Amino acid sequence: MAADDNCFSCAFGDLTLTRASRSHSRTEQNLQAWDAADELLLAHLAEQGVADGARLLIANDAFGALVTALPTNTAIAFCSDSFLAARAARANLLANDKPDAHIAWHTSLDAPQQPLDYLLIKLPKNLSLLEDQLYRYRHLCSASTQVIAAGMVKHMSAGAFDLFEKLLGTTATSLAKKKARLIFCTPQENCRQSGSSPYPLRYAFEARNLTLSNHANVFSRASIDIGTRFFLQQLPRAEAPLHIADLGCGNGLVGLAVAQQMPQAHIDFYDESHMALASAKQNMCDHFPQRADQCQFIADDCMASANADQYDYIFCNPPFHQHNVVGGFVANQMFHDARRALKTGGEFWVVGNRHLGYHVHLKRIFGNLVQVAANEKFVVLKVKKR
Ligand SMILES: C[S@@+](CC[C@H](N)C(=O)[O-])C[C@H]1O[C@@H](n2cnc3c(N)ncnc32)[C@H](O)[C@@H]1O
C-alpha cells in the first residue's frame, strides 16, 4: 500500500492510519484502517462540536480511527474486545503525535464508571456483543447522553435497531452516505432499567461431560462448532507432563479436552479476544480448578509473544476472518508462529474446512504433513517441527 493510501482525511483533520498488522499478506496490507462509517460519525461530531472536557465512551473502534481523530481535550473511555484493535489504536496515536493521557483503556469486560456525554459505538457484526455492550454501558447514560452508533449498511441489521429501542430508548437512523449510516438513540429511564444481560451463555457438552460458559463475543457461544467437535474426536492422549498451547482458544474447549486426555499437561490459551480468554479461564476454573492456576491466558496476535521452542503440542482451529475481512492471512500467521513456538519434534495440529487448503501452507512451512482424519467437510492435519 502506498503511503498516501494511509492518509485519512476526516472532519477533525488529516491523519495517517494503519492496521498495525504483522501480516505480510497483500490482501491485508491493502486494507484501510477506517471505513465510511468512521468518516460519517466524525463528520457528524465535528458539525455539532465536541465541548471541552466532554466524556466519551468509544466501543469497537476497529483500528483507532475514532480515538485518534477526536480532540484531546476530552475524556475518552476506549472499550474493545480486541487486543489487535487496542494495539492499532495506540500505534496510530503514536504515529500521529497524539498524546493518550485523556484515554482510559478498557477491555470489553471492564465496567467504566464515568457518566457519559457521548456513547459512540461502531456496530459489531455480532449482535450478541452489541447487546452485551448496551447492558454494560447503559447505566452510564442519562437523557442528555448522545448515543450514536455507526456502521456500514451491509452490516446493519434490523436487530441492531431493535436492541437500541429495547435496551436504551427511542431510536432513529440517518440517511446513508457512502454506504454508511448512523443510528441515534435517546436514552429513556424505563428502557435503561429493563431486563438483565443474558451473557455469559452456558451450555452443556454431554459427550465430554463439560458445561461451557461463553461471553457474548465468543466463537460458538451458543453451541459447539462442528469443526471443533470433529477435532476433539482426533486429539491424542499422553501421560507425560507436556507443555501445550490452545491457539485461538475461543471458549477453551480444545484446551479443556486436552486437559481431559493429558492429565499432567500444562496448557496455555492464546486469543486476541478478551471475552474468549475470560471464557476459557472460567471454563478451566470450573472443570480443572487445581490446574487452572498453572495455565496462562494470553492476549496476543496469534503467538507473537511466545518464546521459541517451548511447546510439545499446539492445537488450533484457525479463524477465517478478522474484523469483517475474510481471508487466510491470520491462519497463515498462526502457522508461522506455531512453528517458532514448538520444540524440535513438537507437533502442530489443525482442523479446517477442506476447501481452505491449509495442507498447502502447512507443508510449505513445516516441510511435512500427515492427514489425521477427514470427513465430507473437515480435515484434521498434523505437522512436526524438525
Ligand atoms: C474458529 S475460532 C476457534 C475457537 C475455538 N478454538 C473452537 O474451536 O471453538 C478462532 C479463534 O481465533 C481467534 N483469533 C482471531 N484472530 C486472532 C489473532 N490474530 N490472534 C489470536 N487469536 C485470534 C478468535 O477470536 C477465535 O476465538
TrEMBL record:
Keyword Transferase: yes
Gene3D superfamilies registered for this protein in UniProt: Vaccinia Virus protein VP39
Domain of life of the source: Bacteria
Listed InterPro entries: DNA_methylase_N6_adenine_CS, RLMG, RlmG_N, RsmC/RlmG, SAM-dependent_MTases_sf, Small_mtfrase_dom
Full protein name: Ribosomal RNA large subunit methyltransferase G
Role played: Specifically methylates the guanine in position 1835 (m2G1835) of 23S rRNA.
HAMAP family: 23SrRNA_methyltr_G
Location of the RlmG N-terminal domain: 7-188
Entry's EC annotation: 2.1.1.174
Spans through the membrane: none
Main enzyme class: transferase
A Pfam family assignment: MTS
Keyword terms, alphabetized: Cytoplasm, Methyltransferase, rRNA processing, S-adenosyl-L-methionine, Transferase
